[in-house]
Amino acid sequence: MTHLVPLVAGMLIGLGTFFFFTGTLGLLRMPDVYTRLHVAAKADSLGAGLWLIGLAMISGSWAIGLKLLVLTLFVWITGPTAAHCMARAAYRAGVRPGHGIGLTHDPRAAKGTE
Amino acid sequence: MTAMTAFIWAMLLVLLALVVLCLYRAAFGPSVADRMVAINVIGTKTVILVVGVSIASRQLYYVDIALVYGLIGFVATVGVASYLERIGGEEADRS
Hints:
The complex is a heterodimer. Chain A is mostly helical. Chain A has one domain (4-93). Helices cover 77% and strands 0% of the residues of chain A. Chain A is built from 4 helices and no strands. The longest helix of chain A is centred in the C-terminal third of the chain and has 31 residues, at 62-92. Chain B is mainly alpha-helical. Chain B has one domain (3-93). In chain B, helix 1 (3-28) packs antiparallel against helix 2 and helix 2 (32-56) runs antiparallel to helix 3 (62-87). Chains A and B meet through helix 1, helix 2 and helix 3 of A and helix 1, helix 2 and helix 3 of B.
């Protein structure tokens, strides 16, 4: 049973790296600030959580493992909060959603593209 | 070096390459908000890098440094967002 722990931890770390790669791809390829923020915030929360839980499983110490779980909770609380702050700041600073994409059906955004 | 440690080092190198890719958006992002998003993503990846190096090299006190780095990154993101919200203006929407 004990030999399964590094295997599961390695799978979690690999999945976390995959989600970080997905977030980076979205950050580079998405057409808008809000879509980039959407992809980056979600993929980062999932990738960081998987990485930290995987590392906590192989840390070999209860104190470090609990500290890593606390760090996981911290990342899961602050990540969406920071994303919300950035989206609100971008919207109030005048970045129009869907500006220059031509895919939006929001009439306020379509008015902004004229 | 066990196989697990080598695997963690390899995954950390992949994360480092992803940080370099994120730097493109931080350097050439068309608007200020794009740079802010990219720097937030780099901050999250840096926390994971510090924790991963700490576990892989068995220097376990670096975990505290990662915790403090995450805290500072969150406060910095909220501060920069509040500043962008206050100045606003034309140069925020240069996309």
